[in-house]
């Protein structure tokens, strides 16, 4: 099969022919229909994700058709499936309590084992997967496994966002725009922040209530727009300036959700704990989504309560993956890229 392989950090991926993956006994092999290119892939590509090493096939946001099923698999050849990027064991204390995204024995295609920047991907533990609804395109579904699932769990499983509350979203890339759209669908008022005016204009065109071009007064401007501060603030980049703007924009008893990945040089940062103390704020970390929450998210999308298609800006070929990763080195245009052509 053709695959895009990391050979050197910060260098173009190598497009190579490699052996097809073996089918796990408790899982499936998917023919990859679509795979998103995510900022988390970029963290690995530049060498700042401690689990991603040279030789890795990246890609953790995928949708595919089952071409082979193991003897203990729950799905069958011909099924079209989407997967969370965390494949939980299902038996540890975390899994048994319903928190599969904090599983003590995680499998992580695209980070530790071969991912979906390839024609085929092996997926163990297929109890984590979900069937693709007939009304949802595989291209849109490819973004569900990381950006959308993470945003959904951040808003509903962690911050408990309520209709009528103000939600601030710092960064309108894939996760940020997902959070903004989902927050609006949940009945919240939403203000987005970015350094790219084009991305703010794009968000406003999708019905987002307000937009702030980031500067030194970002938090004050949000507090003015929201009449005292946001109830919930999502940080979607993982860098100090937006983390602190997120904390400072909240009203008393507000909830900050750390969605952006702090890794490499941002793994440790200075945080305005005075804002946390003075505001009686709650801080939530979040990563991924328990697989049992797929139905609530898919129902929201298939019922027409939220349209996630504006998230997809362009469909690209496997050979374009390196250019999409390199684009994360600077401010990016609106929307995300999804690989849909694995033949070139």
Describe the structure in your own words:
This protein is an alpha/beta fold. The protein folds into two domains: about 1-145 and about 290-340, Medium-chain alcohol dehydrogenases, catalytic domain (Quinone Oxidoreductase, Chain A, domain 1), CATH 3.90.180; about 150-285, NAD(P)-binding Rossmann-like Domain (Rossmann fold, 3-Layer(aba) Sandwich), CATH 3.40.50. It has helices at about 40-45, 95, 140, 145-160, 175-185, 195-205, 220-225, 240-250, 275-280, 295-300, 320-325; strands at about 1-5, 15, 30-35, 60-70, 80, 120-125, 130, 165-170, 190-195, 210-215, 230-235, 250-260, 280-285, 310-315, 335-340. Strands 3, 4, 5, 6, 7, 14 and 15 form a seven-stranded mixed beta sheet that branches. Strands 10-9-8-11-12-13 form a six-stranded parallel beta sheet, with helices on both faces. Strands 1-2 form a two-stranded antiparallel ribbon. Helix 11 links the parallel strand 14 (about 310-315) and strand 15 (about 335-340). Helix 4 crosses helix 5 (about 175-185). It starts with a strand and ends with a strand. The model has no long low-confidence stretch (mean pLDDT about 95).
For the terminal residues, how far apart are their CA atoms?
12 Å
CATH topological fold name of the largest domain: Quinone Oxidoreductase, Chain A, domain 1
Low-confidence stretches: none
Largest sheet composition: 7 strands, mixed
The tally of helices reads 11
Q: What is the rounded Rg? A: 19 Å
What is the CATH C level class of the largest domain, in words?
Alpha Beta
Assess the beta-strand content as a share of residues. Answer: 15-25%
Count of distinct structural domains:
2
Query: Can you name the CATH architecture of the largest domain?
Result: Alpha-Beta Complex
Q: How many E-type strands?
A: 15
Give, in order, the helices and strands.
EEEHEEHEEHHEHEHEHEHEHEHEHE
- Tell me the helix content: 25-40%
Mean pLDDT: 96
Instruction: Tell me the name of the CATH homologous superfamily of the largest domain.
Output: Medium-chain alcohol dehydrogenases, catalytic domain
Oligomeric description of these chains:
single chain
SS class = alpha/beta
């Amino acid at each position: 099969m053709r695959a895009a392989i990391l050979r050197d950090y910060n260098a173009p991926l190598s497009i190579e022919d490699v052996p097809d993956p073996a089918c796990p006994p408790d899982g499936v092999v998917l023919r990859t229909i679509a795979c998103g290119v995510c900022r988390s892939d970029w963290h690995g590509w530049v060498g700042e994700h401690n689990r991603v090493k040279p030789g890795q096939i990246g890609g953790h946001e995928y949708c595919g058709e089952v071409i082979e099923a193991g003897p203990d698999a729950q799905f069958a050849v011909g099924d079209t499936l989407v997967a969370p990027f965390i494949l939980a064991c299902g038996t540890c204390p975390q899994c048994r309590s319903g928190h599969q995204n904090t599983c003590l024995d995680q499998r992580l295609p695209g980070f530790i084992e071969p991912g979906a920047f390839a024609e085929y991907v092996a997926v163990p533990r297929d109890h984590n997967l979900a069937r693709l609804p007939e009304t949802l395109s595989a291209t849109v579904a490819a973004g569900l496994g990381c950006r959308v699932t993470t945003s959904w769990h951040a808003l509903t499983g962690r911050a408990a966002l309520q209709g009528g509350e103000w939600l601030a979203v710092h960064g309108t890339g894939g996760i940020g725009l997902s959070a903004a759209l989902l927050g609006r669908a949940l009945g919240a008022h939403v203000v987005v922040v970015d350094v790219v005016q084009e991305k703010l204009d794009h968000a406003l065109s999708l019905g987002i209530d307000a937009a702030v071009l980031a500067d030194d007064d970002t938090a004050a401007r949000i507090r003015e727009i929201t009449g005292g501060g946001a109830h919930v603030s999502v940080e979607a980049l993982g860098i100090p300036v937006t983390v602190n703007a997120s904390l400072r924009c909240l009203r008393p008893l507000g909830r900050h959700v750390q969605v952006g990945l702090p890794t490499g040089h941002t793994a440790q940062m200075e945080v305005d704990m005075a804002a946390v103390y003075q505001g009686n704020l709650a801080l939530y970390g979040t990563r991924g989504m328990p697989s049992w929450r797929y139905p609530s998210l898919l129902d929201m999308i298939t019922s027409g309560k939220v349209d996630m298609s504006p998230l997809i800006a362009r469909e690209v070929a496997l050979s374009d993956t390196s250019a999409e990763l390199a684009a994360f080195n600077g401010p990016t245009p609106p929307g995300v890229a999804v690989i849909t052509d694995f033949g070139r």
